[in-house]
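Consider the tokenized backbone below.
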């Protein structure tokens, strides 16, 4: 990131315009700065009484803080979550944030919800029953009757060619 010009240079350019009677264009050319830069410095002197540069950068406070942060930490420990779901829940609680803000919070707090190899539906009684049926049925399938198709080199985007 660039640094602001020195106060000395600013004062010399503004003095040339204010007391020396030069135009901003001519003073800018003489001191090797941009015309708009000289105009802005003169305007700054007239408005604030100083040619010192304004603050650069700074720290923007985090959107998810205080009560919302505490609630969100508790919420993520209670049950599974998705970031889009958290955005919606925060909106219901009166804090309007976007997906990126929630992602930054989750990343900074080292929270994560990773899907497991076993689906969560496995525990439901209807799914467990069907799974047990499938396991019993697998023993009845003759392996020699199974056909495996290798689609490694298959072109699947043939919609333009199969018209």
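A designed sequence for it:
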């Amino acid at each position: 990131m660039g640094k602001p010009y020195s106060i000395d240079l600013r004062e010399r350019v503004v003095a040339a315009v204010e007391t020396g009677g030069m135009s901003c264009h001519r003073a800018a050319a003489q001191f090797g700065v941009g015309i708009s830069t000289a105009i802005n410095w003169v305007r700054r002197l007239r408005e604030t009484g100083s040619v010192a540069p304004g603050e650069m950068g700074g720290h923007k406070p985090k959107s998810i803080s205080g009560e919302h942060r505490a609630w969100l930490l508790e919420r993520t420990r209670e049950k599974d979550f998705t970031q889009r779901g958290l955005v919606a829940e925060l909106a219901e609680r009166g804090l309007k944030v976007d997906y990126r803000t929630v992602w930054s919070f989750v990343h900074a707090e080292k929270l994560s919800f990773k899907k497991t190899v076993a689906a969560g539906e496995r525990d439901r009684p209807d799914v467990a029953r069907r799974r047990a049926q499938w396991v019993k049925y697998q023993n009845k399938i003759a392996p020699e009757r199974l056909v495996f198709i290798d689609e490694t080199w298959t072109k699947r985007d043939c919609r333009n060619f199969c018209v």
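The helical segments are 7-18, 24-31, 35-48, 67-78, 83-92, 99-108, 125-138.
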